Amino acid sequence: MDLIYIAKKLKEALRLEGMLTESGVEYAVETDKYSGGVLFRSERVGAFFYVLPEALEQAHEVMRKHGFRIFQEQ
């Protein structure tokens, strides 16, 4: 599965879930830890969204349409 987004707040996770569901994109979501902060790095928990490779382009299109930034591995 491909990681498409890490929601850092519940509100944005629920918003993305609604959009993907409404658009018929099958996805998986799980909580996991990520590092955040600029001056004071800390470990935080976010909602990680995944899709199958064949749904990747459709998911990206839905995200772009609604102003979400596409996840880019660093």
Give the class-level CATH name.
Answer: Alpha Beta
**Count of DSSP E strands?**
3
Q: Uncertain regions: pLDDT < 50 for 5+ in a row?
A: none
Label the overall shape: elongated
Characterise this structure.
This protein is of the alpha+beta class and about 70 residues long. It has a single domain (about 1-65), classed as 2-Layer Sandwich (Alpha-Beta Plaits). About 30% of the residues lie in helices and about 35% in strands. The protein has two helices and three strands. The protein has a three-stranded antiparallel sheet with strand order 1-3-2. β2 (about 30-35) and β3 (about 40-50) form a beta hairpin. The mean pLDDT is about 90.
Give a concise summary.
It contains 2 helices and 3 strands, in the order E-H-E-E-H. It has 74 residues and is α+β, with helices and mostly antiparallel strands.
Topology record:
Elements: E1 2-7, H1 10-22, E2 28-36, E3 42-51, H2 56-65
Antiparallel strand pairs: 1-3, 2-3
Which key phrases capture this entry?
31% helix, elongated, Alpha-Beta Plaits, single chain, 3-stranded antiparallel sheet, alpha+beta, 34% strand, 3 strands, 74 residues
